[in-house]
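[INFO] parsing input record for MBL fold metallo-hydrolase
[DEBUG] input buffer:
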Amino acid sequence: MTYSGRVTVGGPADVHELKDLMITKVAVGPMENNAYLLRCRATDEQLLIDAANDADALLGTIGDDGIASVVTTHRHGDHWQALAEVVAATGARTYAGRYDAEGIPVPTDVLVDDGDVVRVGQVELTARHLVGHTPGSIALVYDDPHGHPHVFTGDCLFPGGVGNTHKDPEAFASLLHDVETKIFDVLPDETWVYPGHGNDTTLGDERPHLAEWRARGW
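[DEBUG] output buffer:
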C-alpha cells in the first residue's frame, strides 16, 4: 500500500516505510491529533511523537516492543493527554522543548534546544526550535540519507499555513520567520511534512504560498 498520510480517529494507521525508518501515523482524540511512531529498522528501537490522547490506542500501536522515548512537540494540552499513561506503561524517556517543558504536567527527562539531535536506534532527528505557536515548540527533521528529508512539525506548519498564533502579530511574525529560515530555507521541496493534525503535505506544495501567508497575517 502506498502511504498517503490520511488517517481518521478510530481508523487504521498509515505506515510510511523508509529504508532505515518506519513511520506509523495514527489519529487520536476529539481534536483529531496525529501521533507518530518511529521505528529504527536496524535496532527495532521505537520513539513516539506526541502521546496526544487515547493511551490504549497508542499502546496498541506501540505493541510489545515498547518505546525508548516520547517527544512532545509543544505544551498544548491536546498533545500530551496520554503522556502520563504511556510513560507509566513503557518507562520511556520524555523529551520536550526547553521553553515548553514547564507547561507539560509530566516531568521532562531531556530538555531539547535548537539543533539538538534526538536518536531512535541508529536514526538521528534534528530538533528545530520554532517560536510563535508556543514559546518552546519543536519540529524534528529526519534527513534520510537514502532520499528526501522528513519533518514532524507539531502545530507549527500545516497544509495551508503556519500554526495558530491567536491574532498576535508578533507571535505570527516570529513563527513565520522561524518556519521560513529553519525549514523552508534549508530543506528541499521534496521534504515530507507530518503535522500535528490533519493530512500531510510537502514543502514544495506550500512554498509558493509563503508571501500569501505573510500578507494575510495568519
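[INFO] The chain has a mean pLDDT of 98.
[INFO] shutting down worker
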